Amino acid sequence: MSIFGDFKIDGTQLVAKETGAQIPLTSDFARDVWRIGSFIGIVNALRATRIVKGREPRARISFYPRKPRSYYAIWPVCQLADVKIVDDPAEADLHFYFEDREFRIGPMTPPTDKPSFNIGCYDIRKSAVSRVFEETFGYRLVIDPTTHQGPAVEKSESNGKHDGRIIQCPIAAPKPGCVYQRLIDNTFNGFEHVDIRTPIVGGKIPCVFLKRRGRDIRFSNDNHRVDLVETDAMLSFDEQEKIRAYAKAIAMDFGGLDVLRDRSDGRIYIVDANKTDMGPPAALRGPDKLRAMRRIANAFAEMVDEAIAQ
After folding, report:
1. Domain boundaries in the chain?
2. Which of 69, 74, 101, 150 is the most core-located residue (most Cβ within 10 A)?
3. What is the pTM of this model?
4. Strand 22-24's sheet: what is its strand order?
5. What is the pLDDT of residues 56-89, one digit of tens each?
6. How far apart are the first and last CA of the chain?
7. What sign for the dihedral angle of Cα 209, 213, 218, 220?
8. What is the number of helices (H) and of strands (E) in the chain?
9. 126-295: what fold?
10. Which residues lie below 8 Å from residue 215, measured CB to CB, with a gap of 6+?
């Protein structure tokens, strides 16, 4: 089935059938599709060069219950890390739990007893993300909207909705299917909102992406600009250690975290976790896309080698 089978058009929105995520059909979306397609073309060219040279893959990996499309971050990472994606689990050296949903009652059983990645990462609902954050960092993100005084953020439990909105508390009762979080001033200058997108690979943070948005689209998935930044420039050693502990607690071997730094108290807050991360960000400069994915691929290759050795 082509990638077009993963989506449907609903009015002016492109809707992902599996998750319900909505993408506005705008000129910006068309531009992003072109950018992503160009990057995939570059990765495919590099992949073809290695095949022509007869280079043996570092390892073979199978994904279950479904394989990632080329627009997911793990696909170019596998190509750049010399990890071959295979259909038959019996041929694989490793498995990867890959499912674009935020909740299961328990983990899916891997196809074989070979090492598996992300197997325990089966609950990334906003409430679970916030609970693990509080347990790891020692301070709270969630609020009780019936007693909280002042502004707060109301958003869906589900991933990919990008439906956050600012409300005034207290309210009479929480809305079913929603979570309530403190309103974080994640601006550097008081105007431009900045998300610190933090890739996680085997407990490592190879780099971070600064995703910049105006106030009117702060809760959307659109970015005015995305910059590739060194991890140490944005996160302290202690913060990186806590992020690693968080990833371990939520059983995320590979994925991405949305981290916000509050201008008022200087602390960071993890507001979202994605185990089926798409990437690299479309608005990132072309050369930086490849540079970032090579860093992530190198970390992935190390994780693969360690898993096979064990």
Report:
1. 126-295
2. 74
3. 0.86
4. 7-10, 13-16, 22-24
5. 899 999 999 999 999 899 999 999 999 999 999 9
6. 36
7. negative
8. 6, 15
9. D-amino Acid Aminotransferase; Chain A, domain 1 (3.30.470)
10. 191, 193
